[in-house]
Task: structure prediction
Amino acid sequence: MVTAQASSTIPVTVLTGYLGAGKTTLLNHILTYEHGKKVAVIVNEFGEVGIDNQLVIDADEEIFEMNNGCICCTVRGDLMRIIGNLIKRRNKFDHLVIETTGLADPAPVIQTFFIDEDMRQQLLLDAVVTVVDTKHIWQHWEADEAQEQIAFADVILLNKTDLVSPDELDELEKRIRGMNALAKIYRTQNSELGMKGLLGVKAFDLNRALEIDPNFLSEDAHEHDQSVHSFALVESKPVDGEKLNNWLSQLLQTKGPDIFRMKGIINMAGEEQRFVFQGVHMLFDGRGDRAWKPGERRKSELVFIGRNLEEAKLREDFRACLV
Amino acid sequence: MSGLGITQKNLLEQQWRGQLSEYVTAVAWSVDGCLAVSSAAGEVLLWDGGNGDSCLILGSDNTGEQSIDCLDFSPDGQFLAAGGQDGGVRIWQVKPQLQRITTLNNAPKWVDHLRWSPTANQLAFSLGRYVQVWDAAEQATIITLPFDSSSVLGMTWQPQGQHLAIAGDQGAKVWDSRNWDDDPFLVDMAAASMAIAWSPDGKYLASGNLDLTITVVQWGNPHPWVMRGFPGKIRNLRWSKSMSNTAPLLAASSGEGIVIWKKQTDDRQGWDARVLDLHTEIIQDIAFQPKSLLLASASNDGWVCLWQKAKQIAQIMNGATQGFSCLAWHPGGHQLAAGGQNGEVLVWSESKRGKGFG
Result:
């Protein structure tokens, strides 16, 4: 899957969010910030973006199914075609931004970066950034797309905070945290956010530590008022590698479509190294990481984000993998 | 290069070297020995193999430095067409004097594929989910073919000119050029068809698919063969010349390897594979020498390899330090051109002392 390559890889930011949430404003902030660099922007539909000197390409939202029609393993065909053409250059672009329409499921975009070998080699998916219109999100809260955009995100902007009360905002953030324990959540007005939080996130880089919101871990119970939610499993006992492997492969085969993202660090029995992994639907990428430090508390942490996941059952199954 | 068992004289010698300012995206020969070369900076260069003159017939200024991605000469050498990311399809008349006769504007669509009919001066080119056919005699677009299910990922004429096959999601659609309005014949695949090739005798159609399989259809036979086991994307598919007693060889490149498929005499036994293994990086292009089994391969590793009888390495050529991107044999087979990722263009010609091609 995605491996961090030499510095020649080009970072990619995927922007999602409903129409009117503030994606285009955010895109303009990025382009202003990246002034002087070559930024290629792939959009599904031309908005009213005044973008000078940048390469803006209109993409069709074509979904190709993989593996005999498994719906959880799909790619965006037009994206492959466009990027395949763009990387045939000596003087390539410095940054690629993909802006999806409000109604797009972000999974096929992310999976394209895992499946296409040229994209995997030459590009590095940096982060999925989702802009949420805090005032209007409730109107489409029940829509699958809205929930998926939140569930797949690495960075979430709670935008237009000037239009809602602090209480409403707290409630929204709590709900979003329940759906996605991994994303960094920022409160913004006019999509304004320091670029450090937005670029160079390296959310798909396995070398980067798993960061779960400590508040999320300390809370005992989470509200699961929606079908999409996330939870963490934390265990100190070492894990039997073979059992874990069997469990995960079976889980991905049966629950792949419902597992949006997962990430984990494993304390593998008999290993001095940490084992790290991530997954998007059926796609799985795992490998040995750095050695546990002397005195470091060895433990396994897994985070799942998905739809209708049986937390208690998964917890029990994971415990069965402990030595 | 000792240890590779190369003992014979070189088959090819370098004849010419040119330079463009960016990645060479395509090379194409005319039957009269003119070579056209395009670059990712939007240039098109024409080299006349007869007198050795070269000139830039399209500069980056004309294309806004947007890549020209496809090039083709009409089979009679009369016309040259080029298409790319600015959406322009530029058509030149080559003889008696070079002049651009038209530019079809399709911006903001990209023109990724473009190919003249092997038997008529008709040019097929892709525009997103469509293919249009332009007729040189009428100087007009005569038909728009909708692929519908996805953007066009590949396109090839049947060498006899009767059919045009268009590849995309879920397979290929094959139109009859005598009745463009007829519904296309569908060749279904389990995944998107990314590369497509028709054998010179018109009997076999091969498709390289997104699920890392190759489907081979014998025209008229409802049961295709499916080849599996490729390590990565199937980047190139090429058929050899026709063979007297069996199907032509099918060469497929995937990653750093080439697989040569040979059909067994008994249909039920399918196809045998052998691997040509020498390149150390991704192979960007392969091509059989016309009327022979000599296969050329160009790779990111900076080598163009010649494989005698599609088996044994016969010669290794270099000249593009950042790797090669594309290659093409002259229709007569006595010259080979290759483009490089840094803008290099090289032409090799048959060595005077070398004998025993193919």
Chain A touches chain B through 23 residues (CB under 8 Å). The first helix of chain A runs from residue 23 to 33.
